[in-house]
Design goal:
heterodimer; A: 225 residues; mainly alpha; B: 278 residues; Rossmann fold; 6-stranded parallel sheet; 12 helices; 55% helix; 12% strand; elongated
């Protein structure tokens, strides 16, 4: 029995979610809530397991440097009540400080210095195509940055440069949008294999039949009115 | 302005139906789509081929389950390739759903694991979910054992022989990241402070965000979503969903490009018409 039902579950769930494309309905609502519930359950389990394996286990083995973190953890729940809110700020402040410190040290080198260095490219190499590509990088970087200078009115030669910068920003946004579209399509293609291969194909046929019946009934209702 | 109005009033559900048909059609009537291997995918393939025997390859799973349809084909293609070579593979996840995805991929490459006699604990290890995001990455690079005490199946880390030789960034020869988010955190921790050669296996949405890091040589290269999967499958001659998706991808994109052109022509025509009317 299980060997028949289990392969059908992905197809059933996909059809339940995709039924939203036809119209908002209780089946979709059920699937939506199930996804949220399972997601929350998995996150809770994984987080709880992490506390046990990386916090409680080492302390039980005599590694006490994790003890302050374990003791500070429950303080986070203090934020739920106005009288104990202050206690909750302590672990959050520590987390923020560590996160900020870790991010800043890498940002300066990895995302500023290295990126500036990468945009310093030669435009007098024997390869003319490469020269043109490098020129586009330089002009694009400089004019895009100029576009975000708002302390001076954007007119004259400066205005031409900022307009060029705006075009570069628009091209970059267009590229990002196209990439995003590709990702969303890819997300729909995976379940398509489930729906078009056996046993999902049978459910797909039933779903199409149900949609057709519903369309027919709604047309009949309209004509009756 | 009749036809323009007609197009503007089309029920969006017809477009959804057309899109679903464009996905389904290539599955019913498969057609061969010519495929050019990109330089980026070839670099990744060559990098894996060039790794000496016994090298350690780490995989960082950083994607939600909603990204599985796009990320699973390239992840399976690359992981299967790793298991065909005499390499050691360590997988960790920095999102709670990560271990589920990692297990799904391992199940898909079971034929390679069995054919090449790979043993759990000696040739590959699944470390499971590690909480802490950027702080966890930093800690993993310095001392793996400080953040991992048990693996995905609850085995103590001391009982996994592979983990004796993997203590931090210095022991990792190549790092992959199955990634459905921006690469900034990894650039900061893996590239700048870990000094590791790393390769994003990314969803296409982040392709434009990765280019600057590739130009700056902060990442080795990347495998871009389904397209990257199809290219990798071609290189490894292990044809699967990546290759099968290319027909769907081409036809659905042609349909969307057509719809965008039609919508813009309609909009411009309606605009001109109303100007003349005024």
């Amino acid at each position: 029995m299980l060997s028949v039902v289990l392969p059908l579950i992905p197809a059933i769930c996909t059809l339940m979610i995709w039924s939203y494309l036809y119209k908002y309905n209780p089946v979709f609502k059920f699937a939506e809530h199930t996804v949220v519930g399972i997601g929350a359950g998995v996150t809770f389990y994984m987080s709880f397991r992490t506390i046990i394996t990386t916090g409680v286990d080492p302390v039980m083995k005599g590694v006490y440097f994790m003890l302050p973190a374990l003791l500070l953890g429950p303080f986070v729940f203090g934020t739920f009540h106005p009288k104990t809110r202050w206690y909750g700020t302590l672990p959050i402040a520590i987390l923020l400080a560590i996160g900020f410190g870790l991010a800043v040290r890498g940002t300066i080198i990895g995302q500023i210095i290295d990126q500036v260095r990468a945009s310093m490219v030669p435009i007098t190499t024997p390869n003319m195509v490469k020269n043109f590509e490098n020129l586009v990088v330089i002009v694009g970087t400089v004019t895009s940055l100029l576009y975000f200078v708002f302390t001076r009115e954007q007119k004259g030669a400066f205005g031409v440069a900022t307009r060029l910068g705006r075009y570069f920003v628009m091209i970059a946004m267009g590229t990002t949008y196209a990439s995003l579209l590709l990702t969303n399509f890819s997300g729909a293609m995976g379940p398509m294999f489930t729906l078009m291969e056996s046993p999902g194909i049978y459910l797909t046929a039933i779903a199409v039949l149900l949609v057709m019946i519903d369309i027919g009934l709604s047309i009949a209702r309209k004509e009756k009115k | 302005m009749g036809w323009a109005q007609g197009i503007a009033k089309i029920d969006t559900r017809w477009l959804y139906l057309a899109l679903l048909l464009s996905f389904a059609l290539p599955l019913v009537l498969p057609t061969a789509i010519p495929l050019k291997i990109s330089g980026e995918t070839r670099i990744v393939y060559d990098a894996v081929e060039a790794l000496p025997a016994g090298s350690v390859v780490a995989i960082d799973v950083f994607c939600s389950l909603s990204s599985v349809p796009e990320l699973q084909p390239p992840a399976v293609a690359v992981t299967a390739h790793l298991f065909t070579r005499p390499l050691k593979v360590v997988i960790w996840a920095l999102v709670p759903e990560g271990p589920i995805f990692a297990q799904m991929v391992i199940d898909k490459v079971k034929p390679e694991i069995e054919r090449y006699g790979k043993k759990y604990g000696e040739d590959y290890v699944l470390l499971g979910y590690i909480a802490g995001a950027e702080a966890a990455m930093s800690a993993l690079m310095k001392d793996t054992r400080a953040v991992v005490t048990r693996d995905q199946y609850n085995n103590p880390i001391e009982k996994l022989p592979l983990m004796d030789s993997v203590r931090g960034a210095k022991d990792i020869n190549l790092l992959f990241c199955w990634m459905a988010a921006q690469p900034d955190e990894r650039i900061r921790q893996y590239s700048v402070f870990g000094g590791i050669k790393w390769v994003p296996i990314n969803v296409s949405a982040w392709l434009s965000g990765l280019r600057p890091y590739l130009e700056a040589k902060q990442i080795l290269s990347f495998v871009n979503g389904l397209r990257g999967a199809a290219e990798y499958e071609y290189l490894t001659k292990r044809y699967s969903r990546g290759t099968a998706s290319m027909g769907m991808l081409s036809i659905s994109h042609l349909m969307v490009v057509g719809a965008i052109i039609l919508a813009n022509v309609t909009f411009l025509y309606a605009q001109q018409k109303s100007k003349r009317g005024n």
